[in-house]
Amino acid sequence: MGYVVVRQLPILIVLVLLFPAFCHAQDLYVSGYRELMLRTGPHQSNKIVAVLKTGDAVTLIRETEDDYSLVALPDGRQGYVAKAYLTEQIPTAHRVQLLEDQVARQNQELARLREENTLLQVAREETQRTATEQKAQLETITIERNQLQQNSRISSFLAGAGVLLIGWLLGWTRLRLRRKSQRRPGLNFS
Q1: Could you report the per-residue pLDDT of 2-15, keeping only the tens digit for each?
Q2: pTM of the predicted structure, to 2 decimals
Q3: Strands 57-63, 78-82: pairing kind
Q4: What gap in Å lies between CA 49 and CA 81, rounded to an integer?
Q5: pLDDT digits over 38-94, tens only?
Q6: Please, what is the end-to-end C-alpha distance for the chain in angstroms?
Q7: Largest Cα–Cα distance of the chain, in whole Å?
Q8: 107 pLDDT exceeds 90?
Q9: Burial code of 128-154, b = ≥16 C-beta within 10 A, e = fewer?
Q10: What is the mean pLDDT of residues 26-30?
């Protein structure tokens, strides 16, 4: 394993020396209230690659000996700009615009949340109303069930009493008939 690291170390050193942009990359911003030309070379006579505006972000690749810096745009294009118009600080006007945009987004989010809150309150009230109705229905059903149970008990009691009474009457009637038959000879019902 150590052999692999030692073998790849020269490759890493060559990459660091050949690509200093990876080692010294720094984010900078266009400052001032103007447009800044991104050029193919470090002179005003070079071709314009892009026009940068105040607050645009660039990545410093390296500084030249004169008043220019080689920079890269977020889309990967590279060119030279006058280093006097670059700063590490986001320009105030751009910061204000960013903050205004952020406030606008937050106001939109706040409006959305308020609307959602209103909808949730309506849903909550509807749920509470439904719960109240269902509670009233449950109480009504419980009362009806209790009445049915009581009626069922009474019906069962009366049915049992009726069977007992009918059994007693049948037994009593049979007993009377038997006694009568014993008093009269010739009639035998048993």
Answers
A1: 555 556 766 656 55
A2: 0.42
A3: unpaired
A4: 10
A5: 999 998 899 999 999 888 889 999 988 888 999 999 999 999 998 888 888 877 777
A6: 116
A7: 155
A8: yes
A9: eeeeeeeeeeeeeeeeeeeeeeeeeee
A10: 82
Residue at 146: amino acid letter: N
Quote the tokens at residue 1.
């394993």
Q: Which two tokens stand for residue 39?
A: 């050029």
The secondary structure of the chain, three-state, reads CHHHHHHHHHHHHHHHHHCHHHHHCEEEEECCCCEEEEECCCCCCCCEEEEEECCCEEEEEEECCCCEEEEECCCCCEEEEEHHHEECCCCHHHHHHHHHHHHHHHHHHHHHHHHHHHHHHHHHHHHHHHHHHHHHHHHHHHHHHHHHHHHHHHHHHHHHHHHHHHHHHHHHHHHHHHHHHHHCCCCCCC
